[in-house]
Amino acid sequence: MRRRRVHPPAPTSEFAGFRFPPEVIILAVRWYLRFALSYRDVEELLAERGIDVDHVTVYRWVQRFTPLLVDAARPCRHSPGDRWFVDETYVKVAGHWTYLYRAVDQHGQVIDVLASTRRDQAAARRFFTAALSHGRRPIEVTTDKAPVYPRVLNELLPEAHHADAARENNRIEADRSRLKARLRPMRGLKQLRSVQTISAGHALVQNIRRGHYELGTDTDPHARLTAAFTELTPAI
């Protein structure tokens, strides 16, 4: 008696089961990550195109598909540079101040972000461990004068020069203002996960627009982000 061959199940798209097509979902997510819009703003813009979507649905799309876009884009990402600029900023979540660690290289690529309830060595170690997974190890790391950094850098990057002069960190402080502008309409944040998701999505958008991914490379720079998100959609 011949045995029936068992075929593995076909991979299921993450868009399966959604009422709206992937193009609409990705458009809403791209608008939200790129511009300083609220979820209600995106709802209104979609309504102008004849697409009736509740702002809560837009929120769910952003939270679900932003990490998938970041993961899908990872193989196309350029290695970071060898000079890193690191700092942390404050974001209020559920009425409490939390911390957002960020690193940018000398070419303006956002290397990584980490939202944390604490500003301590454990958070800094977790952030640098994740950042180092993206490729090249830096030869120089510039931070502010926070006392948690020297011990963590000596542990994880003993070969790198550590600079902590405040004026040396102007690059990341200027870049941080763009993220703060994106977060400003997000009043009443309830979960740290939302800060992490939006900050990572904003970093993805900034890096694509600056040419740090092999995505949308054959298009006009003004259309690069649209082309890149279109390329990423089938991979989700």
TrEMBL record:
The keyword DNA-binding applies. Residues 82-212 form the DDE domain. GO terms for biological process: DNA recombination; transposition. The keyword NAD does not apply. Keywords: DNA recombination, DNA-binding, Transposition. GO terms for molecular function: DNA binding. Involved in the transposition of the insertion sequence. PANTHER family: BLL1675 PROTEIN. NCBIfam families: transpos_IS6. This is Transposase. It comes from Parafrankia soli.
